[in-house]
Design brief:
Strand content: over 45%
Mean pLDDT: 85
Number of helices: 1
Shape: flat
Number of strands: 6
């Protein structure tokens, strides 16, 4: 749970770092078994994330996070990244990201 609080706090600091942007929408729900949030800023950035605690009370207890963020690049293109972070690591996907070759 400490990890969740730190993660949400760091995300808030990242948004605050851009002094020219204002938060248009921010929704947060933190519970014992997970969290979710959604943020949109005036500079075109958005971030939605949901986490659930899996295998509660077992040796294999783990958090599984999924989400999506987007931002307007300096080139005027909106970039979007979807991701999952779980026991298999961080797995981002987006049309602008390279894809690893199949082994």
């Amino acid at each position: 749970m400490k990890f969740v609080i730190v993660l949400v706090a760091l995300f808030g600091l990242a948004i605050a770092a851009d002094q020219d942007a204002t938060v248009l929408r921010q929704d947060t729900n933190v519970a014992a078994d997970g969290y979710d949030f959604a943020v949109e800023t005036s500079d075109g950035k958005s971030h939605i994330e949901k986490a659930i605690l899996k295998n509660i009370g077992s040796e294999n207890e783990a958090i599984s996070v999924s989400g999506q963020y987007s931002y307007l690049g300096n080139d005027g293109i909106t970039y979007s990244v979807s991701y999952v972070a779980d026991e298999n690591g961080f797995q981002p996907s987006g049309v602008h990201l390279p894809v690893a070759p199949v082994a």
